[in-house]
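## retry 2 of 3
previous attempt timed out at serialization; input unchanged, resubmitting
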Amino acid sequence: MRLIRFLKIVAVSLRFGLDEFILGHERVRGLRVALRLLLFWRRLTAPRAERLRLALEALGPIFVKFGQVLSTRRDLLPPDIADELAKLQDQVPPFAPALVLAALERAYRKPVDQIFSEFNPVAIASASVAQVHFARLRDGREVAVKILRPGIAQVIGNDLALLDAGASLIELLWADGKRLRPHEVVAEFSKHLEDELDLMREAANASQLRRNFENSPLLLVPEIHWDYCSTEVMVMQRMHGTPISRVAELREQGIDIQKLSRAGVEIFFTQVFRDGFFHADMHPGNIFVAASGHYIALDFGIMGTLTDVDKNYLAQNFLAFFRRDYRRVAEVHIESGWAPKDTRVDEFETAIRAVCEPIFARPLREISFGRVLLRLFQTSRRFNIQVQPQLVLLQKTLLNIEGLGRELDPELDLWATAKPFLERWMSEQVGWRGLLRRLRAEAPNWSTLLPQIPRLVHRYLDDTSGERLQRQLQQLIDENHRQTTVLAIIAVALTTLTGLLIWLAF
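## retry succeeded, writing output
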């Protein structure tokens, strides 16, 4: 099976001329002429990036998803390839209704009609890993049911093995292979797929995000019905809304589009800097708008997390960019541990200034926040700074939010919207508010530690007091001996000197 799949990959690669990525290497450049003669029938007129995208689409849904993940690594890819891969759409035909019902009965170990009073076997959305159906529970609640594709784990395993082999080949033969770190990219993709193959993880992500935005005027997240969830099936509240890409319909419903675009930016920064837990796949297909004007988030397979160090790093960098303080940007990299300690601040500052000054020559509302971050990552690589995966996800999400916001409101000034939020967050971290927050966070530990202090002090004194006194006494004795010896020497010297003077006098 794997051999047949491999042969298909080779055939598709040759058909779309992907061999040029390999034959560009000097070690095998001599094969280029022979291969062109052998494949004389090929007409490769389209750009290389377009041919790569078409090849991935021809290879099937797993390779499409791989291309989507690859498009987020703009710190590694040439711009033309990254832009083209971003066009990939994860849309595949749904699997048969009979397989749907069989999967549900296997998960619940009972007939479907004992779980749902209504179930629509026709999928309303279908992707490479799972598809979604509408249903109604027996208590009357409307739900959306997400079901994994049957046998998808084995298919993914085979394709991942082939991708890893391809990564080795690229690293060996392509001039830029090692720089692109293909094994790292495949490993990152494998992790994403592993998360998506366990729908309990996705359900937990949705539950956490819902809790973070409970009673929020900005974002609605569907409730998870845990009693009906498993690794292969996820049941959640059905949400009613309009896809955010249908701007004309939203205007007809009386939705304030400018307010909606600003709310999207605020949602993003709230997730990142308040919670450190953000939806990392916020493209228009995963975002709806409720009649109330709230955002509705869907599809929680890919989530990003940030530590306090990450958040502080980002906030300080963004604020320094606002002020064009490039030296501070360089210092933050070193202080946060992202750059080696021996990095020269002045050289790093100069490199950042060379990249960013042309950007800031334009009006602020025309500047892409995400592309500034991308340029920073690209510059960082020159100084042996490895960009962390969570920051790559963040950059990808920021580009999505920017694109969405400016599609809704072309005049959106992302910088003006973000700066007050960042300044407020920084004041909460380094000011008296931050001190109080940290004191409150440590208070539970004090409640258990403080009562133990008298006992611990007594034990310390009891265990060490005798030994300490003995040591001090020995020091006094040694000091007394030393002083006695010195005085004896002085006495002998004075006696000798006195005797000498008397002898000289007579």
